[in-house]
Amino acid sequence: xxxxxxxxxxxxxxxxxxxxxxxxxxxxxxxxxxxxxxxxxxxxxxxxxxxxxxxxxxxxxxxxxxxxxxxxxxxxxxxxxxxxxxxxxx
Length: 90
Prior knowledge:
It contains three helices and three strands. It is of the alpha/beta class. The protein has a three-stranded parallel beta sheet.
């Protein structure tokens, strides 16, 4: 999941579920520090662990990220857990 050419966008792809989030968190912490946007357009599946991943990447980076094209399910989970003010989605 490389950063895009602008260096400020981190593109995620494939499933972001409980089976994947621990590995994703380890892999994405370094590039997430420089990124300002998390692009979800190529993500195929999410569960509640995706919210935990967003919060972990923000914590590790020291700043929040804007979410680009979050799946509808992810937006619903963010609302359900009441973390809208910690997550920026256009």
